[in-house]
Fold this protein.
Amino acid sequence: MSMIGLIDCNSFYVSCERVFKPRLCGFPVGVMSNNDGCVISLSDELKAFGIKLGAPAFKLQPLVRSGQIHLLSSNYELYGDMSQRVQAVLEEFSPAVEPYSIDEMFVRFDGFAHEALLEHARQLRQKVRQFTGIPVCVGVAPTRTLAKLANRAAKKLPVYQGVCILHAGSAETRHLLQNTALGDVWGVGRRLVERLALMGIKSAWELAQANPKEIRRHFSITLERTAQELRGVPCIEMSDLDEARRHIMTSRSFGKLTDNLDEIREAIRQYGQRSAERLRRQNGLAKAVLVFLKTNPHRQDLLPHSPSLVLELPRPTADSREILHAAGNALERIYRKGHLYQKGGVMLLDLIDADRQQLSLLDTPQSDAERQRSQKLMDVMDDLNRKMGRDTVKLGMPTPGAAWHLRCAHHSDRSTTRWDELPKARAL
């Protein structure tokens, strides 16, 4: 029988930090969001303080100053590289690894007997920890939805010791489903929980036993697939989970309020490049660009201004130069001197598949030679940035210390991607 595993890295951002700061092991540690705003990753020791995900970092400063807890700025360059290292280990155990998020990956296990699969999953878990330093839990089942539940059980129930394997129709699976609230089922949100409760469906087991046609009629084919998956019938593929986005947005709060047009222009240029990179990764083209700015809505002493503007591109494109040109024009038209802006962003709209592009008579013509030059240039930029590190090649140079830069007062070293930040060994 074909089985699917979900490997989930435990407290991933914190675990990455602990690999290069082993002194933090066993200590209450949290990683903060952009601009050190709130806590987005917590160690078990920090959770024991009663601190919840999303807690405002400023409220925790007394605990930081007293040395009871430790908070770090987010270090996404490190986390992204560590995620790739985890994936490389998983690829030694399975020919098919499907990243779902930075800290979760599906893997396929085919042709294993139960005991052999259990031992294989345990070895996988041990090797990931040995080769990367990242602790993971493994959930295995016939479907992705059940694998999610198995992983949750592996993480929360000590009896599984980090590895849980569920088989469709087993007494173990039935017991787990009966004791799983609907809100803990992958893809079932709060509103669905409320609507299902009106039908008397309150647990994962009750959803699995519901009439699939009734579920589809009252809700959607997506929820019907979830119900079938809880029964052990595979219905969800990665293509269902990772459909090309209809829009791509990159947006950040600035490190501090600013009305400096040059600095804001740098930020918009940075966000536009990020969006264009993501667009090319999904082999897409954009037809329009939206740029927006926002002042702080909570500052009653400041003039409010939250403008936005959409500009149509001359033709569908993934060329960063054309996207940044349009974004720059949009910024010039919405910026107003005298307003202190807190946030800005770039959104790419009306996305299409590059392989299915249909040229319109209204599009600005582009020769095949120009199109090929554009694609080759973007390919070279993306390849260099992928091999040599993000922003090795970029359009425009940011000003050091500009207001839009994120606050990262407690940033750890990027120990796996920057030569000048490699860990140093000293003889005692």
